[in-house]
Amino acid sequence: HLLHKAEHATDMETGAVVAVVLAGGDEGDTESGPKTLMQAQENLKKVGEDEDAKQEISKTVKEAVLDKGYHSNDVLVHLGTKQVRSYVSEPDRGRRQWEGKEIEQAAVYANRRRIRGEHGKALMRRRGEIVERSFAHCYETGGMRRLHLRHRANILKRLLVHVAGFNLGLVMRYMMGSGTPRGLRSLLGHFFDFVARWIEGLYQIFAKRKSW
Question: What's the pLDDT score for residue 28?
Answer without folding.
Answer: 87
